[in-house]
Amino acid sequence: MPIKNYSTVIGVERTVAEIEKILAKHGAQAILKEYDVAGRVTAVNFIIKVFEGQSIPFRLPLDIQALMEVINYQIDHPDPKEGRIGRKYKNDMDYARRVGWRIMRDWIDAQMTLIDLKQVTVQQVFLPYAYDMLEKKTFYEKLREGKLKELPMLDK
Questions:
Q1: What φ, ψ does residue 4 adopt, rounded to 5°?
Q2: DSSP labels for 29-87?
Q3: How far apart are CA 2 and CA 41, in angstroms?
């Protein structure tokens, strides 16, 4: 099956505005967009209160290059029983951005719905994206680099 939202025509600007609205509705105190040199959104950052009123920044980046690789693979290896991504989208980074941000919007909306239903907390969902603004790294990036050795890990 092709990647979710592969047929979207909704622009990145509209989708990012929808993401901001979802975050604001769920208590984001501040929202910041990061841009590349061409003025395209590369990440959405937000600050929200968690743990007894403590505010934590989060960073949600979009790895457009990785997404483009998946899209190109699906173009070159379509499932004959499913919908197809048009060949015209091969290496089309604007298309990948539209699809990627739409997927991110759907994911954020789904996570916030689970939070509303008290199935999870903001911390449970977004912890990998907690952002250290001094080091400019997410919790996951620091963990991957071995900078969080104080976390208990299970032996293999």
A1: -55, 145
A2: EEEEEEE-TTS-EEEEEEEEEEGGGEEEEEEEE--HHHHHHHHHHHHHS--TTS----G
A3: 24
Burial class (CB in 10 A: 0-12, 13-18, 19+), 78: middle
Coil, strand or helix at 28 = strand
pTM: 0.88
**Euclidean distance between CA atoms 138 and 144, whole angstroms:** 10
CA 112 to chain centroid: 13
pLDDT tens digits, one per residue of 79-138: 777 778 889 999 999 999 999 999 999 999 999 999 999 999 998 999 999 998 888 999
For helices 93-116 and 64-76, angle between their N-to-C axes, nearest 10 degrees: 110
Domain ranges of the chain: 12-131
Give the bridge partners for 56, in sequence order.
48
Q: What is the DSSP letter of 89?
A: G
Q: Please, which residues have CB within 8 angstroms of residue 26's CB and are 6 or more apart in sequence? A: 48, 112, 115, 116, 122
